[in-house]
Every structure is written in C-alpha cells, then in structure tokens.
Amino acid sequence: MAASGSSKSAQERREAQREALRKQRESELRRQRTVRTVVIAAVTVAALVIVAGAGYLIYRTTRPAGPVAVPAGMAQDQPYLSFGAEEGSGAPVVELHLDFMCPYCGQFEQINGEDVAALVEDDAITLHLVPRRMLDTASTTGDYSSRAANAMVCVYEENPDAAMAFQQLMFANQPAEGTAGLTDDQIWDYAQQAGATEAVQGCLTSRTYQPWVRQVAEPYASEMQKGTPYIAIDGTQFGEWTTEGAFLAAVQAAGGSTASDAGGAEASDGGEG
C-alpha cells in the first residue's frame, strides 16, 4: 500500500508540474502577443506622423502663394514701381531693372542716374523700376539685395520723389559684393536723408514688401534677363548705357520734341556730373 500511495503522489506532482509549465507558457505567449501589438501600434503611429509631415511639406511647397502686400493703388501682380508721367500719357516708357548690390547697376547710376531723375521729375518718361534681389547670395547675410529692395518700396509708398533720391544715396554708398551690405540702420539713415518720415521705419523693420520683391518682381525680371542692369525704351532693350549721354539721347529720340524740351538741358548737365 505504501508503494502505491507513493507512486500516486509522484504522478500528481508531475501533473502539477506539467500544469504549471503549461500556464507559464500561456502567460509568456500572452506577454509576447501584447508586446507585438504595442510595437505594431507604435510603428503605425510613427508611420502616420511621417506621412502627415511629408504631406504638409508637399502642401507648403505646392500651394499657391498667398496675397502679397503692395503699395496702395498698385495691383498685386504689378512687378514694377511707376514714376514720372502717367501710364498711357504717350511719354516714352523706360523699364529699368536694378539690384542694389550689383556693381554694374552702380555704374549705370553713376553715368545715367541724374538723367533718369531729371526725366522723371519733368514727366518726360514713364519709368518702370524693378528692384531685384538677384545678388542676395553675394552678401554674407544672404539677404542684402532683398532688404534694400524692400526699403526702396517702403520709401516709394510714402513718397515716390523721395524714392528716387533714396536710390541715388544707396548707390552712392553701395557696398561691395561679398560683404554684409549696409545695415538696416544705415539704410534707414539714407531713407531719412532722402526725405522719408518716421512712418517708413516700421515698414523697413518688418520687411513689409520683401515678399513682393521675391515673389513678383524677381520672377518677372529674371524671365526677361538674368543679369542687371536691364534697360528698355518702349519695349526695346537698350545696351549702350555705358556711353555717357547715349541713354538720354535714345529717350529723347523715342519721345520726340517733348522729351527733348522737358528733360534735355537739365538732364544733360546732370549726366556730365
């Protein structure tokens, strides 16, 4: 009897051990399934985040550009600032593309700037001025041309006459390529010298018209010609601007006696200076 009882007790112990092992295996399988579920969920969430982020970047890249700020009375898609005689007046239309860091633009201003200013003042031409940011990368700050062009528009908005004087001051004090360019304070100082009031300073600081420069003016100008300066008289490109007096003579020829009488004497004196 003792042997039979001892055998039964051993069998029960083995069954108990097997049951314990079975429960342990089931517990481990449940744990593994739980871990697998958590991992799959985490990977799915991460993938959704990545896809959503990529989709947002694509949206930001491909969405149409929003409206840009422009001076009062100017259409949002107008790529130039207008000076002098009214549009459609019959005066020659001079289109001028300038970058405030471009040394050749500085040369154009030195040779022809006084003539341009005199013709504008006498309403002898309609000037379409396109301020460019082509040489942003030529400044160590990466944005000098944009900042200077924005300032030009800010001054223009308040007083176009002051804008012409501001342009002359900016080229008279033009920084060299490969430098940081003029500081915002220096630009503001020249704007004040040209006649801008304190109201203009906020426009310069906030760079109100920089989006217009980059999204409207620059694309328009770069499609016409990559380099600066670009000069056209009544739609025909003019390339002899390095010869003193040639630009003025071409404008006078385009406008006939009106341009000659209105801008001739004063502009010629300015050109010689």
How can the largest sheet be summarized? 5 strands, mixed
Which residues sit in consecutive blocks of at least 5 with pLDDT less than 50? 55-64, 262-273
Q: Count the helices. How many? A: 9
Total strands: 5
Distance between the termini: 135 Å
Strand order in space, largest sheet = 1-3-2-4-5
Please outline what is shown here.
By secondary structure, the chain is an alpha+beta fold.
Molecular structure report:
This protein has 273 residues and is α+β, with helices and mostly antiparallel strands. It contains nine helices and five strands, in the order H-E-E-H-E-H-H-H-H-H-E-E-H-H. It has a five-stranded mixed β-sheet with strand order 1-3-2-4-5. Helix 2 runs antiparallel to helix 4 and helix 8 packs antiparallel against helix 9. It is rod-shaped, with a radius of gyration of 36 Å.
Question: Notable features of this structure?
Answer:
alpha+beta; 8% strand; single chain; 273 residues; rod-shaped; 5-stranded mixed beta sheet; 9 helices; 62% helix
List the helices and strands and how they pair.
Blueprint: H1 2-62, E1 81-84, E2 93-98, H2 103-121, E3 126-131, H3 144-158, H4 160-172, H5 184-194, H6 199-206, H7 210-224, E4 230-233, E5 236-237, H8 246-255, H9 257-272
Parallel strand pairs: 2-3
Antiparallel strand pairs: 1-3, 2-4, 4-5
